[in-house]
Each structure stands twice: as C-alpha cells, then as structure tokens.
Design goal:
alpha/beta
C-alpha cells in the first residue's frame, strides 16, 4: 500500500523538523524517502502532521481494570455507543471497555500504548485483554518491586542471579520493561504494614526500598534493556512526600549506565511532588522535582496530570488505595497477588472547590512547564488515576495557553492559588514541544527507534490534526487547539488510514511489543531451579501454566527487542 500525505505542516523533533510544509511518503507500512508509481494522495494543507502518539503509562488492561469495571457499573453509562458496520458497541469513561480504549486512542492520534503494571501471575489475562484492544501496538511493564525472588536475590547480594531471573520473568510475561511500585511497601501490606522511608525493612526479607530500587536499576543496566527502570516511588499521595522522592532520585547518581540515556523514569510525578506537613498546608513541591530533573541527564518524568471530575484510581500500591479510601469513605477493593504485588482500586472525585485538588491540578502543569527540556517530560494522566486519557486535548490546551491556565486557576480555592507557583509561569508550549511530550519523548524513553518520528524507516504511524499552525494562536485560541487534538482529520496506522474526520473507518489489530532478554544458560538453569522450588512451595498455579505463549498476543509478528548481560 502506498500513501502520500501532502502539504502538511510537519512536526518531527527527533529529526529537527519544526512545522515545515512538506510531504510524507508511505509504502508497505513504513515511512520512505519517496514513493514511485501510483499512490493514494491525501491533501493535508493547513493541518498539523505528527508521528502517531505513544502512550507510555496507562492502566488499560489487567486485573485492576476489570475489578474497577465490576465495582463501577455507573461508569458504564458514559460514552455509550452502539455497534456500527465496522466497530463494536462500547461504553465507559474512567473504565472504558477494551474496544473503546482502542477506538478512542486512535481518534486522538495515538497508535501505541503501554499498560502500566503487569503482575506476572496475571500476565496471560492481561495479554488477552491487550489482544482485545484494537488500533494500537501494545506493550506491558512487568511489576517486580515486591517480587519475592527479586528481593531474596538482592538481599543476598546475588545480582547475577537477579539478572537471570528478571530476564526470564520478562520473557515469561512477554513484558517490555521493569516496573517497580512502592518498592517493598506492597509486600509489607500483605502483612498489614507499609514502608514509609527508603530505610524501612521489608518484613521477612531483610531488605529496604533503597536496596530494591538500586538493585533494579543495576539489573536494568546490566541487561541493557531498552527502557529505564519505570518507578512509582514510595509514599505516593502522602503530604510531604517530596523528601522521599528527592532521596529516591539521588540513587540514580550511583548507577553506571549501559549507554548514554536515562536510568530512571519517575512516573506520574505529580503524585510524588507534595509539600507541607498536613492537608491544611498542603502545597506544591514541583520546583524541587523539576530542578532535580533539570540537573541530571539520568532522569525523565511523566506528568500524572489531574483533571477535575470523577474517576477511578487503581494501582499496585495497595496500602495507598486503602489510605485513599479511608479519606473518602468510598468503596474499595484490594487483592494480594501471591509473591508479587498487592493492588487496590477505589473511585475518587477531583473537585475545583477542594484546595487539595486544586494544588494537585497545578502541580502536574508546573512540572511540565518547569522542566526545561521537553524530551524529559511526557504527557500522562496515569489513566485513569489523575483523569481518563480522554482529557489529553484539554491538557494540551493548558500547556499551550497561559490564559487558559489562568482562567482555571482563578476559579480555584485561594489555598490552591497561594500554595502553587503556576500563576507565575508564563511559558507556553509550541506545537513542536507538544509533539515531544505526546510521542517523541515517549518513544525515546522506551527505546523504540521506529516510533515517535517520521524519518525514513519509521513505522508509518501518523496523526493529522485539523488546525493550521500559521493561522492559529494557541495562547488565545486554545479551545480551537483542544478541538483539533480531540479528533484527528486522519490517523494512519502501519500505513493504513484508520480514522478520518474523527471517525473510525478501519479496524486493525496492531502488534505486541516485548523484550527477549537472554543470559548465560548455566546461570539461567540454576535460577529456574529456584523458580521451580518457589512454585511448588508457594504458588497456587503450576509453573507450566505461568509463562505467556505467543497465542495470547495480538499478533504472531510480535516485536522482540534483544537484550544481553553486560
């Protein structure tokens, strides 16, 4: 299939293209230098052309998502659409159905999405759900920060064995990266406890969060994995947690990177940037976190932006969800996933009248505006924790318009205005910077060389937005920008037009992205003997029923990213 996107304003920061009027040539699912012979031509005059969006952190599949769907039937009454000739019937807002997830991301111009937390024991189920999500290439971040064997090997100083186990676990779960959530804290929750500092000991394992985080970063670099450690630090959502976050970020200085890149992604950073010592003087500490990121080449972050309204929170941080439910009195679910993690789910409402919600809303935007290099920032809401991903166009409007931010800020509780610095920030994102934070930065952080740009050889994933950058002033016309980013004029996935004028016109399946990490065979056999022992003694499933076969994946053409021990 040959396609030419003609005369669009192209934004491709990885290749240094900033709004240049040019043509994009596509053949056989790839971007090419030129197309010879007949090709379909789409006139993109007066429109913005960007690479397909890349979602690096979103809870779109797995046990937590299904628990949320079960406990929130009222959420199913939103975004209800009947089936069409090519699409399934769908519903949901903070807990959208799998098919709606794919359709809605595609309408926003996204073509790739990673589910943020994959418990190994739930990997088969999670991949079955990912298989259901159309329109997107997909991947999953495997949760390891409370894994019994990881903690055992690290506590005993057997880093080579830990590397071998992590490599096997990534292959077994068809995971893409190492994810750590409240390291040590979720395991402590299984014993009715939590960890509140990096020096607390995890019950029964004689290890601290500091040692888990440092160990996982070292494992990640020894294996030369494409993405850094993806970290949800301790004390998420707690007043004054900025001290824990900064102490955690300091650990990156001790790591020897396998190559020039970041070694840690601070995920949903808004939830980890809280100052004050009580909810009465709760304040933003975004300046401290932004300064840490600005001063280091080893750190990147995603925003975890809050948008006002009701949503559903879900995380592998079980004690945090219990704490949140105890504050709100709303329904709550918790699950202990044997030997691996302890997730929780509870609804939440971010209110413009609440001083706390107002400060939270400001913090995410402050982080994005205070971090100087847009390649170090990624737009997320930690879907659906801060807000559903449907709200991305609104966030883009806030980033591009100080006026739009001021309008919201002036409507908030006075405490939210006093305890944040957002009102003093006049920076406004350009279309190029929006391209960075919604696709290019994510692709670079994930090590996806064929995504996030429009150079020759890249995947032919393209988003065309109906807005003219030469005739539109985003600062004043932010509502126009929001509308444009709410529904693409065209979304192209692997060279095929799948969305036209905001409507799905073709349904495709996408691929599954995962890491194929390998270590020394003798060491792996030794580790697998430990795995076999643990399964027979502690797990409720047989080891043979644990790994994910390719039949569970979206496509047998799954992308394998080779990794090896350094």
């Amino acid at each position: 299939m040959k396609l030419v996107l003609k005369n669009g304003y192209v934004f491709d920061p990885i290749n240094g293209i900033d709004g240049e009027k040019m043509d994009i040539f596509i053949e056989d699912g790839r971007i090419v230098e030129e197309v010879k012979g007949e090709a379909e031509v789409i006139d993109c005059s007066g429109m913005v052309v960007m690479p397909g969006g890349v979602e690096i952190h979103s809870h779109i599949a797995g046990g937590k998502v299904n628990t949320a769907r079960l406990m929130r039937p009222e959420d199913h009454l939103r975004n209800v659409s009947p089936r069409t000739a090519i699409t399934r019937s769908v519903c949901g807002y903070s807990t959208p159905s799998t098919f709606l997830t794919g359709y809605a991301y595609s309408k926003l111009g996204y073509t790739t999405a990673f589910t943020a937390a994959l418990p190994p024991l739930m990997a088969r189920h999670t991949h079955e759900e990912l298989h259901d999500i159309p329109m997107l290439d997909k991947g999953a971040l495997t949760v390891m920060g409370n894994n019994w064997l990881v903690m055992r090997y690290l506590s005993e100083g057997r880093i080579e064995h830990a590397c071998a186990y992590v490599a096997w676990l990534l292959r077994a779960t068809k995971g893409y990266a190492i994810k750590a959530v409240n390291p040590g804290g979720s395991e402590a929750w299984g014993w009715g406890r939590d960890v509140r500092s990096l020096s607390d000991r995890v019950p029964h394992f004689d290890i601290t969060p500091r040692e888990i985080i440092s160990g996982l970063m070292e494992i990640n670099e020894r294996l030369s994995l494409p993405h850094s450690l993806h970290l949800h630090p301790n004390n998420l959502g707690r007043v004054g947690n900025v001290s824990t976050t900064l102490e955690t970020l300091e650990l990156t200085r001790e790591v020897k990177p396998s190559r020039e890149r970041q070694v840690l992604q601070l995920t949903h950073a808004q939830f980890h940037s809280y100052g004050g010592d009580s909810w009465r003087n709760f304040s933003s500490a975004a300046e401290s976190i932004a300064e840490a990121v600005n001063s280091s080449d080893r750190l990147v972050l995603d925003m975890g932006q809050v948008v006002f309204g009701d949503t559903t929170t879900m995380t592998a941080d079980g004690p945090m969800e219990y704490y949140l439910s105890s504050l709100t009195g709303l329904k709550w679910a918790n699950k202990d996933i044997e030997l691996e993690t302890a997730p929780g789910v509870t609804p939440f409402v971010y209110s413009e009248k609440s001083p706390v919600s107002g400060v939270q809303w400001a913090i995410g935007l402050e982080l994005a505006l205070l971090v100087r290099e847009p390649m170090k920032v990624m737009l997320t809401t930690d879907h659906p924790n801060g807000a559903p991903f449907f709200t991305y166009p609104k966030i883009i409007g806030w980033l591009m318009s100080a006026r739009s931010r001021e309008r919201v800020l002036n409507s908030l509780h006075p405490q939210a205005q006093r305890n944040t610095v957002l009102g003093s920030l006049d920076r406004e994102y350009t279309f190029q910077e929006i391209c960075w934070v919604t696709r290019a930065a994510q692709a670079k952080s994930l090590g996806l060389e064929n995504k996030g740009h429009l150079g020759a050889g890249a995947d032919a994933d393209v988003a065309v937005y109906p807005v003219n950058p030469e005739e539109t002033d985003p600062s004043r016309e932010y509502e126009k920008v929001e509308r444009a980013f709410s529904a693409t004029a065209y979304t192209v996935k692997a060279g095929e037009v799948v969305v036209r004028n905001g409507e799905v016109v073709r349904v495709v399946s996408g691929r599954t992205l995962y890491v194929d990490a390998r270590v020394d065979g003798e060491l792996e056999r030794e580790v697998l003997a430990d795995v076999d022992y643990y399964f027979k003694r502690f797990y409720s499933v047989n080891l043979a029923n644990y790994p994910v076969q390719e039949v569970y994946l979206t496509s047998p053409q799954a992308v394998k990213v080779d990794a090896g021990v350094r």
